[in-house]
Write a structure and sequence with these properties.
The chain is an alpha/beta fold. The protein has one domain: Roll (Diaminopimelate Epimerase, Chain A, domain 1), CATH 3.10.310. It is built from eight helices and four strands, in the order H-H-H-E-H-H-E-E-H-H-H-E. The protein has a four-stranded mixed sheet with strand order 3-2-1-4, with helices on both faces. A hairpin with a 4-residue loop joins strand 2 and strand 3.
Length: about 160
């Protein structure tokens, strides 16, 4: 129960200001540039989404960062690409958690352990307070997997601008 109470308090005390402190306007612009540059090398689509906290009811119901990432994968239509090569990098600040959800076209070719490794590296950087570098390293790692497991660059189907919630 103590762990749940701590989690609830973290979510209640997190706000957009939490995200702005971690990801400045300059950092968000650098993330957008990194995604745009990455997508010039492969036909995958990367979406970077960061959220301060979950709403109260989902937290009380025990929604995990993974559950929320899957929900956003659908809401942001990351799955809706011609080659099914969309990848969502999701950061939930209140839980200090990073989740990667890859569409079936790329997930079938890249191993789950690879995505978990990228998440772990990003979480380590974030733990040191190095949010921009962690995000850029995560995007570069995802890009390497997309270059290895997908085709040459095609039309940009999804926005490169980070989603901040």
């Amino acid at each position: 129960m103590t762990m749940n109470l701590q989690r609830i308090l973290r979510h209640l005390s997190s706000s957009r200001r939490t995200v702005r402190r971690a990801f400045s306007a300059e950092a968000l612009a650098a993330i957008e540039r990194a995604i745009r540059s990455s997508e010039a090398a492969h036909d995958g689509e990367i979406v970077f989404a960061v959220e301060a906290a979950l709403e109260t009811v989902p937290v009380l119901r025990g929604q995990t960062a993974r559950d929320r990432a899957l929900e956003l994968f659908s809401q942001l239509r990351v799955w809706d690409t011609e080659r099914n090569n969309g990848v969502l990098i999701y950061v939930l600040m209140a839980d200090r958690d990073v989740e990667i959800v890859a569409d079936r076209g790329i997930h079938a070719r890249a191993r789950e352990e690879a995505w978990k490794e990228v998440c772990g590296e990003m979480e380590q950087a974030f733990g040191r307070g190095d949010f921009q570098a962690g995000a850029l390293a995560g995007i570069a790692a995802v890009s390497r997997h997309l270059e290895r497991h997908s085709g040459p660059a095609r039309t940009n189907e999804l926005s490169d601008k980070p989603v901040v919630r």
